[in-house]
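Need a sequence for this fold. Nothing fancy.
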């Protein structure tokens, strides 16, 4: 069965996407745009890279267990 997002109109999805892209444009240090049309492994790698970059910039040290799964 369709969830509430699947029931929304294409126009609403497009407006929401445009709003998120505008936020990402204004706040590139906080938001990263990732092309989800890529191969799933590429998407996962980009997400991991973005998260690791954010953690490094924050100065928060990674624990050994975190590195093993990264």
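Here you go.
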């Amino acid at each position: 069965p369709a969830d509430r997002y699947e029931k929304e109109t294409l126009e609403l999805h497009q407006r929401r996407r445009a709003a998120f892209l505008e936020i990402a444009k204004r706040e590139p240090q906080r938001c990263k745009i990732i092309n989800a049309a890529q191969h799933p492994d590429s998407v996962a790698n980009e997400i991991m890279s973005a998260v690791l970059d954010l953690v490094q910039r924050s100065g928060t040290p990674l624990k050994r267990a975190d590195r093993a799964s990264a």
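For context: The mean pLDDT is 88.
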